[in-house]
Predict the structure.
Amino acid sequence: MLTATIWRNQSQDGNAFYNVRIVRSYLKEDTWREASSFSGSELLRLSRLSQAAYDAIARHRKAERQAQKEAA
């Protein structure tokens, strides 16, 4: 299973930025583990997941800009 985790950070000067962590989870002997390496057969799914994360960040940034306009 591939998972992208997105979190929002704020720099010291107040600007927001986003980070993304992508991992591959797998079950080994009843224990879930994570890896940061991907097989060739996972690359297309990794690409699509990266695009989805990019799109989600774009939506968040747009919502933040809209909220700032409404607050002004």
In short: The mean pLDDT is 95. The chain has one domain: 2-71.
